[in-house]
Design goal:
Fumarylacetoacetate hydrolase, domain 2; 2 domains; 7-stranded mixed sheet; 5-stranded antiparallel sheet; 19 strands; globular
């Protein structure tokens, strides 16, 4: 009896903390030349902290900085404040740190990513800052201060909507605000409310702002992009239809858990061309959305420049809009393609990573 109880407790505990599955997939490989920034926690009550994801390991950025500085740094970098300032434990502070922080992170990443997996494994056993990816929980890399969602930027999506008889046009430069409180991370649950029958997915790329921007040119906007992440604009289509009859778009896209985001942020300096990235969303292994940022009708810096009419701050996010293949526009009958309890989603963008989420019925 005690053995069964112990097993039940361990099982319950492991489910509650949702240990991380892989962040790699078909198009995002274990490329050690790509810096992937994550927010992680250990155990049930561990605090959230920033990390590099290298191979199948998590490297705590703040502690890795202390280790590196003690081993190779000068007297100034060995002081307590140095790593707290240049290698902060919070993603928003890391983004706000600007070029000096990124230069320090570049140095750290170059050092640790050049190690062989066997060397990282030795560090895992002997240090407190290298952990197995399978032993931690990966959260959303950050909860953006504001999310400006843009739509109509992938013309194939607009075309499929027209062909499917969607009653509302999808013109260029649609925008609305997405609720930051709806953000969930890797291996989390999208909760399907009982009052929607047509829950849909929209794979997008998230553009993370790295500096304060206001009415900027495309050139300045490009310099102001911190990095990119994977994003799903989950939508209750039946609610959307009702709202859009009144010219609104609000609740259908802003319910709790309707903004899966992550699993990492890749800084823009580590992505050669953000307009040449393969995108794919799979439901239970079945490819539902397939496309590429090459099919954007605008450039990411144009999106940022366009919406800098409102002040953009470090940690804000803009989305690209979705690629074609959403459930609502499937023919002849979209019904089988809407999300349901138990569905497992894999959202992937080349170079960045694979964000995993599951669907479960909400309690209401």
């Amino acid at each position: 009896m005690r053995c069964r109880l112990k097993k039940l407790i361990v099982t319950s505990y492991s489910r509650s903390i949702r240990m991380a599955s892989t962040i790699y997939g078909k198009y995002a490989t274990k490329n050690q030349k790509v810096m992937r920034l994550a927010t992680y926690s250990e155990g049930k009550t561990g605090s959230k902290r920033t990390a590099f994801v290298i191979d199948d390991y998590i490297l705590d950025i703040n502690e890795a900085s202390r280790f590196y500085n003690e081993s190779f740094g000068d007297q100034e970098s060995k002081k307590t404040y140095y790593s707290d300032f240049h290698a902060p434990t919070e993603m928003i502070k890391l983004i706000q740190g600007g070029p000096h922080t990124m230069d320090h992170l570049d140095k750290l990443f170059k050092h640790f990513s050049s190690m062989e997996p066997t060397e990282l494994e030795k560090l895992r056993k002997s240090s407190n800052f290298v952990l197995s990816l399978a032993d931690v929980r990966i959260h959303a890399p950050l909860r953006p201060n504001k999310i400006i969602h843009t739509a109509g930027n992938f013309r194939e999506h607009a075309q499929e909507g027209a062909e499917a008889g969607w009653p509302f046009p999808i013109p260029h430069w649609i925008s609305f605000l997405k609720n930051p409180d709806a953000v969930i991370g890797h291996d989390s649950f999208i909760e399907k409310p009982s009052f929607t029958k047509t829950l849909d997915h929209e794979l997008e790329m998230g553009i993370i702002v790295g500096k304060k921007l206001k009415n900027v040119s495309e050139e300045e906007a490009k310099k102001g992009i911190f990095g990119f992440t994977v994003f799903n604009d989950v939508t209750a289509r039946d609610l959307q239809r009702k709202e859009m009859k009144n010219g609104l778009l609000n609740i259908a896209k802003n319910l709790d858990t309707f903004a899966p985001l992550g699993p990492v942020i890749v800084p823009s300096r580590y992505i050669q061309d953000p307009h040449k990235l393969t995108m794919e969303l799979r439901v239970n292994g079945d490819p539902r959305q397939q496309g590429s940022t090459a099919k954007l009708s605008v450039k990411v810096e144009q999106i940022v420049s366009k919406y800098s009419w409102v002040t953009l701050n470090p940690g804000d996010m803009l989305s690209t809009g979705t690629i074609s293949g959403v459930a609502a526009f499937r023919k002849p009958d979209p019904t089988p393609f809407f999300l349901k309890n138990g569905d497992v989603l894999e959202h992937e963008i080349e170079t960045i990573g694979m964000l995993k989420a599951s669907v479960k019925d909400a309690e209401f």
